[in-house]
Design goal:
It contains ten helices and four strands. The chain is mainly alpha-helical.
């Protein structure tokens, strides 16, 4: 949408408001802003943080309102740190700048939806992404099998805080760096195999 508005020379007349249950980490917000989002409403992350506070699973004395305030503050500080690392001082300069490189998306998808983004290693197309979205939808509306199952966002927030599960480790990062520097699809395949093997160890609810 951002690129289309730029092509039609109407981008400065429109604000793009993103409302999604997906954003929960600083990088998610950075990507959305970098591709043109003027504001982001991460409703599922906010509801998850409120739920954790109400159930007393955060620090003592943290109310749902305070938990949301801390979450938003941490995201904003993380975004400022991201900008600073790139030598950018304002959000306005960062929005729509597309200072990223795509990894794991095929050229047709990048050209159609992320025009101008560098992509030296190809990967999946729109069909695979659509199938993943359908799987997430089916998982979200599955029959309840326990009195209080954790939502996907809550599980990821808890996992991040305890560092019990992580896909980013010295081996996977090394493989990814080698694949990009050498432009080697074989090395990239080794990286994806490592990620897939780790994903297989996640709980069943983490689709």
């Amino acid at each position: 949408m951002h690129n289309l508005l730029v092509q039609e020379e109407t981008r400065t007349q429109v604000a793009l408001i993103t409302e999604s249950g997906e954003p929960r980490e600083v990088m998610h917000f950075a990507l959305l802003s970098g591709y043109g989002a003027s504001a982001i409403n991460p409703y599922l992350a906010l509801e998850s943080v409120e739920s954790l506070a109400r159930r007393g699973e955060l620090y003592d004395g943290v109310t749902p309102e305070l938990a949301v305030k801390h979450f938003l503050k941490s995201v904003n500080k993380g975004l400022l740190k991201t900008f600073a690392k790139m030598g950018i001082s304002t959000l306005q300069s960062y929005q729509g700048a597309q200072v990223f490189e795509a990894i794991g998306l095929n050229k047709e998808l990048v050209d159609s939806y992320f025009a101008g983004t560098a992509s030296r290693l190809e990967g999946v197309g729109l069909e695979v992404l659509a199938r993943e979205a359908q799987m997430k939808h089916e998982h979200a509306f599955r029959p309840l099998t326990s009195p209080r199952p954790n939502s996907r966002s809550e599980e990821l927030i808890i996992s991040a805080s305890t560092a019990s599960i992580t896909f980013l480790n010295p081996l996977t990062i090394s493989k990814l760096q080698q694949a990009v520097r050498q432009e080697s699809f074989q090395t990239f395949q080794e990286y994806t195999d490592l990620i897939d093997n780790q994903a297989a160890t996640w709980p069943r609810c983490a689709v």
